[in-house]
């Protein structure tokens, strides 16, 4: 784990705002500690750009510990870069070598328009959630005792694994079709697996899928790329569950 | 909304792709079993078996319905696939400058549309070569044969006789002066008297098609055919298991099994299909 | 100014119930006529927005992230406390209340904390009903674990991602209200000022972070749920963009800021590695259930480890100093955070630190014993009574993996070391801020109509927060307290009608914001914002960190004052006002952090005692334990803003009364 310094070349997508035309720009950055995270490397680049009186690169980030889902970036042809089970903020420079050229691009999807440089607008995910990603209980806290309904551990665990989604959009970014089915499948699954979510299961899956389609995401062709690139390792089993739920709901729903 | 959801939604499109695709897999099995008649028996016996099979396929009402379902499936699978592909392209209007999909997905899974299109081209030529001749243009001659000496009951040994569906007491000679062909039906010349029904000799068409002695382009046809089967194999490699996933049939206990069966299917079925013309070619 | 905490009369267990019975209500048909602004969408903000939207108020919610789901509550790992006593180990509302007051070193308000303990059970009920997938046992019922500072198992959890699951639960409730049109969500918006009209909070000025537009938003009440100020240290476990600005703006407009020096330093974080580091990563406190904390007994061993000549696994058991177990046998590795942090610092200051960084600061968190013992248990349960050593280790690692797998992976990704094979290196890092905007029992600040919830207020954790209590407080405030107390306030607003944004007060506030932005952009200095933020961080960490002295604090006040002047003179902010400009956002935040940093020093200097996270080196006993001074400092110190020099701030004291709990020395031995 000896830390060393490397020099790298960066090719980064720059775009002034959502309407502007963007292009790749090339930057050289020296003395990058291999202990740095990828975002710390970008901090370093920005420090350099600011000192050169150039405009720093805009990128989304916040928690820097892989849980908020804010960071994105398509690095060297892969969502969240060349490592598995992590977000970009957890990607470390020790995975790169001295002299490497690194491509950094924003998520590409019709449903994720670019805001600036590497920043994209993922509010389509929020709208999908608003269409049905919830259980309609009021917030009185006087529903029923938390232990009133036992949930089989295996279901609770699976619901949790689905719920671990951080909404970063890597699934959409890495899918060749720009499909959001892993995201939606995970949300549908979390509730479908829990007894308290079954009550509205039909309406939920129909509404969420309708919203997903309206947002302009592509269709799933089961390449499985999303599952591989998902920082939280969410399984495409959840997509299959959504497919089941949707079939059941479309056939039997009252509406 | 549920009704339209079963047609319009992105997930419904997946169901239809899966249902038609998996149905076409069963069609492949049926087709293959038929084709195997070409090589399981040789000589006149094989010829009869195959042509009988071809006749059965064309005349059984159940098979007929099934065949229309098959045509519909092919068309639906192709049209739906093209529509999906167009939509999917729209979902990413600007491409990545640098992308490395091999890190996260298999080649066949990403090339389904291309593989499918190639298969569609193959199906069109395949149907032009065999199905069109068989069903529409009716240019395939009827199955005729020479009598063996011991079958010789006063008939001339030198002329051809029709191989007929319901064997008549006396073999019907291929004699345009006496017998008139209406489709596969054989009539007494200038009358409404149907004597019997013959078989189209698809066997010979196929055999000649891949026989270098008869057809100068046989090698080319063989290569195209075998190549198409390879393409089919790749398509099935992903498509088979993918169909199950699309229908929601995913269970940790069975996923591996489905995947293995799919891969086995993707190798064995196209291989056997391809083996038939190869054997014909080298024989 | 006389501080009125408005704690209801009556016995402690009846205060909240009585108060609820006596508060005013707003009828359902009147609620849609009333606008409420909520700033921040973490646990406190999302739950408040969802609840108030559900009730029928016309709610606008603001967050600077691209989605409300990304607020930093999401990063809380370990769990949430609730006095459910599902584990039958003697827990009760009173015990949770008692533990929290004691854990806070008797600097929290009794009334608030008891209310928190009372509603804690409802939080779990609510979350389960919302579909939060808490960990369960094989029987299908909810599982619990222990946390520091307690002797019962009352912590509910969802692997190491409890905060995420709770926030997503609140976010789902909020999403539902947004979908129903009852809450209007403004994402990528940052509040830059509060607007006070005729003495009441009447709206905010916010910047659209995408277009740069400065917007006016009016409401009958403003709720701040904007989180804590840990990022004043630059390096902390907070998210990079967490900030004090919303709270500081209302402080500047008249809200008192209480106990700013009460900061929690979390004992188990990954040590600092380099100068470009932007963030410190927490390793959940739950790890202390299984890990043992130690340093070498001999200094030369520590040196050998630092120079890379010795591996920790080569040091025999008898040469290790398990200093928490040695000093605090009753609680061992599960002492409260402030105690554990200070003990680690004590060892490192004495030269036993094991991390090879500039400061040698780091201690071991070792799982070897737990791996062995759990491995043995697992082998026994499987009927393998004579399992080999390797088999026991294998089973033990499996057990650890199931329990803490995600944390171990995270550790390995960051440090490139495998914690299954070699002990984790940890060191305390800034994590949570107990101080915050002063609020009364109703969560109202000293600006009428401006309420403050969650970490942004000061109320519930005293001088030290117990683990798994922050999530509890955020949700309690948002779901179960604010809906009542805010309605009580709004009952007087049903005749007010629409609030106009054309008033001179809005005009002035907007102009002030625009001016300060223009000043930064025109400044054309030579240093980046981060340069100043890092310098500020070093001053506060070294002088207002784990150990504080009179001399150091005086220096800090001086140095921060100089830094402030230098910052305004020499900072360079690129870009324009009318576009997405992250550097500008940072500059506006750091300006507030600098002022806050100085107030922290002023507060720490005036508090001549050691309590909880506030450790004044002059006030300790022979064994290095804190010496509290209840006679002179049993109060919340609420500061009034008097310009950007914090030494001019005016102190107001809220005397803390302990009626239900007998105040005592805090002892975890």
Describe the structure.
With 255 residues, chain A is α+β, with helices and mostly antiparallel strands. Helix content of chain A is 36%, strand content 14%. Chain A has nine helices and seven strands, in the order ββαβββββαααααααα. Chain A has helices spanning 38-51, 123-132, 153-163, 170-174, 181-192, 195-198, 201-214, 225-229, 237-252, and strands at 5-14, 23-33, 74-75, 78-79, 101-105, 114-116, 119-120. In chain A, the strands form two sheets. In chain A, strands 2-1-5-3-4 form a five-stranded mixed sheet. Chain A has a two-stranded antiparallel sheet with strand order 6-7. In chain A, β3 (74-75) and β4 form a beta hairpin. The longest helix of chain A has 16 residues, at 237-252. With 283 residues, chain B is mostly helical. Chain B is built from nine helices and five strands, in the order ααααααβββββααα. A three-stranded antiparallel sheet of chain B has the order 3-4-5, with no helix packed on it. In chain B, strands 1-2 form a two-stranded antiparallel ribbon. In chain B, α1 (2-8) packs across α2, α2 (10-40) runs antiparallel to α3 and α2 packs across α4 (61-90). Chain B is elongated, with a radius of gyration of 23 Å. The N and C termini of chain B lie far apart (60 Å). Chain C is an alpha+beta fold and 669 residues long. Among the domains of chain C are: 268-430, Flavocytochrome C3, Chain A, domain 1; 504-635, Up-down Bundle (Methane Monooxygenase Hydroxylase, Chain G, domain 1). Chain C has a five-stranded parallel sheet with strand order 5-2-1-9-17, with helices on both faces. Chain C has a five-stranded antiparallel sheet with strand order 11-15-14-12-13. In chain C, β1 (35-39), α2 (43-55) and β2 form a beta-alpha-beta unit. The model of chain C has no long low-confidence stretch (mean pLDDT 95). Chains in contact: A-B, A-C. At the A-B interface, α7, α8 and α9 of A face α1, α2, α4 and α8 of B.
Can you give me a brief rundown of this structure?
Chain B has 283 residues and is mostly helical.
Outline the fold blueprint.
The complex is a heterotrimer of chains A (255), B (283) and C (669).
Chain A: E1 5-14, E2 23-33, H1 38-51, E3 74-75, E4 78-79, E5 101-105, E6 114-116, E7 119-120, H2 123-132, H3 153-163, H4 170-174, H5 181-192, H6 195-198, H7 201-214, H8 225-229, H9 237-252
Parallel strand pairs in A: 1-5
Antiparallel strand pairs in A: 1-2, 3-4, 3-5, 6-7
Helix pairs in contact in A: 2-7, 3-5, 5-7, 5-9, 7-9
Chain B: H1 2-8, H2 10-40, H3 43-59, H4 61-90, H5 107-110, H6 112-136, E1 144-146, E2 160-162, E3 179-182, E4 185-188, E5 194-197, H7 202-209, H8 218-246, H9 252-282
Antiparallel strand pairs in B: 1-2, 3-4, 4-5
Helix pairs in contact in B: 1-2, 2-3, 2-4, 2-8, 2-9, 4-6, 6-8, 8-9
Chain C: H1 15-22, E1 35-39, H2 43-55, E2 58-62, E3 80-81, H3 93-103, H4 110-130, E4 155-156, H5 162-179, E5 183-186, E6 189-197, E7 200-208, E8 214-218, E9 221-224, H6 245-252, E10 257-258, E11 263-269, E12 292-296, H7 299-306, E13 320-321, H8 323-327, H9 337-352, E14 363-366, H10 368-381, H11 389-415, E15 424-433, E16 436-437, E17 450-452, H12 470-490, H13 504-523, H14 529-543, H15 550-570, H16 582-606, H17 630-633, E18 635-640, E19 650-655
Parallel strand pairs in C: 1-2, 1-9, 2-5, 9-17
Antiparallel strand pairs in C: 3-4, 6-7, 7-8, 10-16, 10-18, 11-15, 12-13, 12-14, 14-15, 18-19
């Amino acid at each position: 784990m000896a830390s060393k310094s490397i020099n790298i070349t960066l090719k980064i997508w720059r775009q002034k705002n959502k309407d502007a035309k963007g292009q790749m720009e090339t930057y050289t950055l020296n003395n990058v500690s291999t202990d740095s995270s990828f975002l710390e490397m970008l901090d370093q680049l920005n420090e350099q750009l600011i000192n050169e009186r150039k405009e720093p690169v805009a990128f989304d980030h916040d928690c820097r510990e892989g849980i908020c889902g804010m960071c994105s970036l398509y690095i060297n042809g892969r969502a969240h870069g060349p490592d598995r089970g992590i977000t970009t903020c957890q990607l470390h420079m020790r995975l790169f070598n001295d002299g490497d050229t690194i491509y950094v691009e924003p998520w590409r999807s019709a449903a994720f328009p670019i805001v600036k440089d590497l920043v994209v607008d993922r509010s389509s995910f929020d709208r999908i959630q608003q269409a049905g990603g919830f259980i309609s209980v009021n917030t009185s806290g006087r529903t029923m005792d938390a232990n009133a309904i036992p949930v089989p551990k295996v279901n609770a665990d699976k619901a949790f694994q689905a719920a671990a989604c951080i909404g970063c959009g890597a699934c959409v970014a890495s899918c060749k079709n720009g499909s959001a089915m892993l995201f939606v499948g995970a949300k549908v699954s979390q509730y479908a697996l829990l007894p308290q979510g079954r009550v509205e299961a039909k309406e939920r899956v129909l509404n969420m899928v309708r919203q997903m389609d309206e947002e302009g995401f592509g269709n799933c062709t089961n390449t499985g790329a999303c599952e591989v690139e998902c920082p939280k390792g969410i399984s495409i089993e959840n997509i299959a569950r959504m497919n089941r739920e949707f079939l059941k709901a479309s056939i039997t729903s009252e509406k | 909304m549920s009704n339209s959801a079963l047609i319009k939604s992105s997930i419904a499109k997946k169901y239809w792709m899966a249902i038609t695709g998996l149905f076409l897999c069963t069609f492949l099995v049926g087709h293959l079993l038929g084709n195997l008649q070409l090589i399981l028996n040789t000589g006149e016996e094989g010829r009869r078996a195959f042509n009988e099979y071809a006749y059965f396929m064309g005349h059984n009402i159940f098979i007929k319905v099934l065949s229309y379902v098959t045509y519909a499936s092919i068309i639906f699978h192709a049209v739906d696939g093209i529509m999906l592909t167009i939509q999917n392209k729209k979902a990413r209007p600007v491409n990545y400058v640098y992308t490395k999909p091999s890190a996260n997905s298999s080649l066949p899974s990403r090339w389904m549309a291309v593989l499918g299109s190639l298969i569609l081209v193959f199906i069109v030529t395949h149907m032009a070569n065999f199905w069109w001749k068989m069903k529409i243009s009716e240019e395939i001659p009827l199955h005729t044969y020479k009598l063996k000496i011991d079958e010789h009951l006063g008939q001339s040994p030198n002329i051809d006789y029709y191989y007929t569906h319901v064997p008549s007491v006396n073999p019907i000679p291929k004699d345009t002066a006496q017998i008139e062909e209406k489709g596969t039906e054989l009539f007494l010349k200038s009358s409404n008297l149907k004597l019997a029904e013959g078989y189209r000799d698809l066997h010979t068409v196929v055999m000649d098609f891949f026989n270098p002695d008869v057809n100068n382009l046989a090698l080319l046809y063989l290569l195209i055919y075998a190549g198409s089967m390879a393409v089919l194999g790749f398509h099935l490699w992903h498509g088979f298991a993918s169909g199950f996933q699309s229908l929601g049939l995913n269970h940790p206990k069975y996923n591996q099994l489905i995947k293995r069966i799919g891969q086995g299917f993707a190798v064995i079925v196209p291989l056997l299909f391809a083996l038939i013309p190869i054997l014909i070619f080298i024989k | 100014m006389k501080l009125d905490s408005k704690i209801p009369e009556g016995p402690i267990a009846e205060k909240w119930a009585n108060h609820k019975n006596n508060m005013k209500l707003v009828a359902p048909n009147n609620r849609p006529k009333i606008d409420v602004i909520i700033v921040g969408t973490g646990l406190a903000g999302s739950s408040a927005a969802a609840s108030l939207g559900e009730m029928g108020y016309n709610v606008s919610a603001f967050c600077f992230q691209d989605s409300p789901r990304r607020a930093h509550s999401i990063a809380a790992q370990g769990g949430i406390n609730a006095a459910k006593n599902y584990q039958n180990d003697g827990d009760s509302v009173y015990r949770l209340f008692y533990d929290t007051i004691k854990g806070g070193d008797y600097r929290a308000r009794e009334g608030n904390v008891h209310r928190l303990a009372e509603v804690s059970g409802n939080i779990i009920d609510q979350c389960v009903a919302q579909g939060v997938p808490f960990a369960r046992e094989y029987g299908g019922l909810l599982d619990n674990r222990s946390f520091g500072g307690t002797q019962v198992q009352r912590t509910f959890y969802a692997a190491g991602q409890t905060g995420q699951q709770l926030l997503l639960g609140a976010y789902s409730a909020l999403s539902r209200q947004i979908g129903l049109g009852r809450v209007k969500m403004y994402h990528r918006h940052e509040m830059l000022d509060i607007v006070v009209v005729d003495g009441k909070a009447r709206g905010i000025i916010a910047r659209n972070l995408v277009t740069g537009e400065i917007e006016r938003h009016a409401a009958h009440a403003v709720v701040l749920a904007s989180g804590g100020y840990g990022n004043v240290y630059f390096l902390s476990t907070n998210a990079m963009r967490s900030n004090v600005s919303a709270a500081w703006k209302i402080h500047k407009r008249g809200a008192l800021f209480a106990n700013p020096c009460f900061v929690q330093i979390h004992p188990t974080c990954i040590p600092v590695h380099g100068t470009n580091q932007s963030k410190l990563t927490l390793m959940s406190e739950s790890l202390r259930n299984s890990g043992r904390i130690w340093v070498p007994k001999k200094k030369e061993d520590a040196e050998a480890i630092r120079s890379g000549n010795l591996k920790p696994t080569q040091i025999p058991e008898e040469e290790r100093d398990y200093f928490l177990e040695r000093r605090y046998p009753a609680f061992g590795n599960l002492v409260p955070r402030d105690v554990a942090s200070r003990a680690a610092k004590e060892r490192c200051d004495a030269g036993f630190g094991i991390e090879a960084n500039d400061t040698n600061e780091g201690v071991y968190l070792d799982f070897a014993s737990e791996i062995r013992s759990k491995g043995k248990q697992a082998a026994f349960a499987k009927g393998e009574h004579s399992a080999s050593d390797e088999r026991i280790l294998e089973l033990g690692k499996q057990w650890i993996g199931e329990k803490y797998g995600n944390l171990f992976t995270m550790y390995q990704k960051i440090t490139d070391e495998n914690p299954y094979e070699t002990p984790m290196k940890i060191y305390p890092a800034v994590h949570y801020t107990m101080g915050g905007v002063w609020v009364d029992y109703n969560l109202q600040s000293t600006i009428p109509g401006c309420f403050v919830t969650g970490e942004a207020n000061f109320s519930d954790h005293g001088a030290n927060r117990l683990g798994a209590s922050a999530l509890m407080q955020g949700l309690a405030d948002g779901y179960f307290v604010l809906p009542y107390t805010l309605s009580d306030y709004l009952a007087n607003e049903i005749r007010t009608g629409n609030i106009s944004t054309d008033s001179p007060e809005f005009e002035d506030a907007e102009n002030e914001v625009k001016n300060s932005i223009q000043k930064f952009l025109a400044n054309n200095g030579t240093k980046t914002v981060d340069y100043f933020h890092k310098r500020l961080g070093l001053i506060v960490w070294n002088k207002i960190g784990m150990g504080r002295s009179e001399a150091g604090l005086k220096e800090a006040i001086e140095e921060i004052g100089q830094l402030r002047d230098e910052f305004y003179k020499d900072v360079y902010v690129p870009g324009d006002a009318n576009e997405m400009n992250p550097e500008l956002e940072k500059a506006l935040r750091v300006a507030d952090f600098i002022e806050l940093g100085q107030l922290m020093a002023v507060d720490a200097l005036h508090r001549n005692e050691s309590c909880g996270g506030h450790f004044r080196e002059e006030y300790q006993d022979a064994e290095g334990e804190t010496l509290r001074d209840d006679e002179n400092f049993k109060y919340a110190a609420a500061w009034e803003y008097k310009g950007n020099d914090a030494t001019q701030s005016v102190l107001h004291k809220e005397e803390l009364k302990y009626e239900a709990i007998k105040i005592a020395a805090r002892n975890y031995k």
